[in-house]
Design brief:
Largest sheet: 3 strands, antiparallel
Number of helices: 4
Number of strands: 6
Strand order of the largest sheet: 2-1-6
CATH superfamily of the largest domain: N-utilization substance G protein NusG, insert domain
CATH class of the largest domain: Mainly Beta
CATH architecture of the largest domain: Sandwich
Radius of gyration: 28 Å
Order of helices and strands: HHHEEEEEHE
Strand content: 25-35%
Distance between the termini: 61 Å
Number of domains: 2
Mean pLDDT: 76
Shape: rod-shaped
Length: 136
């Protein structure tokens, strides 16, 4: 009986107002979703990964990882030191180096042993580095 009492208090105009307010509550979501889509541009959802090999802050090698197929090898020599870098698919790693501590190679092997998968980027010890950069 109490429910009937409350239903009698609701008028058709009240239902229209409730529906309009409910619809208006979605306007901010639609506005911000549209602005975000415009900000990302036509390449929304596609990311481009590029690896940069640097030595003493200077770029010595650059390879685009997105869309890369097959295996590419790069040998970097700086005086008596060298790094062998292999890119397979969209992954890059340092497979060999003649530095005494072998941090860059060991780091990759330790991470692979713990995670049972290939590490997407490796960082070398000392002055040589492999870096990933992502663009949208």
């Amino acid at each position: 009986m109490k429910h009937n009492k409350y239903l009698k208090m609701i008028r058709p105009g009240d239902i229209i107002i409730i529906v309009l307010l409910l619809a208006a509550s979605f306007i901010p979501y639609l506005v911000f979703a549209r602005q975000q889509a415009k900000a990302q541009g036509p390449s929304a959802g596609t990311r481009v990964l590029t690896a940069y090999v640097t030595h003493d802050g200077k770029q010595v090698y650059k390879i685009r990882l997105t869309g890369h197929r097959g295996t590419s090898r790069y040998h970097y020599q700086a005086g008596s030191e060298y790094n062998d870098i292999v890119t397979t698919g969209d992954q890059i790693q340092i497979i060999d180096a003649n530095c005494p501590d072998q941090v860059c190679v060991k780091k990759r092997q330790d991470l692979e042993a713990r995670s049972n998968h290939r590490v997407p980027a490796a960082q070398a010890a000392g002055r040589n580095q492999v870096q990933h950069r992502q663009r949208h």
